[in-house]
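S.,

Sequence below, as promised.
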Amino acid sequence: EISLGLVGSEMCIRDSTYSISGTDEALFSIGESTGVLTFNTAPDYELTDPVADDNTYSLTVTASDETESIDQELTVTVTNVEGGPVFSSAETIAVNENQTAVLTLTASDDENDTIAFSISGGGDSASFSLTGGVLTFAASPNYEVKSSYSVTVTASETTDINGASIESPNTTDQTITVSINDINDAAAVSYTHLTLPTKRIV
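The prediction came back faster than expected:
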């Protein structure tokens, strides 16, 4: 619930009760005795349904007592609070030894901005490479040498939905733990070439 804390001096009726009506009344609730107005569901600036295209809501608040009532027309405007990128790719993953593939990073934000990725830290950052969101090992890991790795990646907003550069981009870090699966190595087979002496029969 989002409290708008309505009802002030303009609607001052002693021992009054409060109700709402109007275009968007179904999206709100009001305390009958307190006059506290709340959204039933937190609004999202980016959504146009049920929010109007201009992100405004209209309703009428009525304060009543036993003898009279007063109406107040109310317009509620939703303003944008820009959110940072949210990762949807895994924080933990297990991969087989002797291969370089790890995972493809994915993230998005509620403004549909373009997101870029970078390696930003972690104890094993030097062991990884990152190209276009595809995270790989720089060299194939060996379970017998090291069985777990940690790397921190950063998702950064770069351009908005219209392709314009974002002057103050939001960023989000994610620490990824990569476990290495032990794979049975193929048995090594070696051959020894023997040259046997030959006996000449006369």
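The longest strand covers residues 148-159.

Coffee later?
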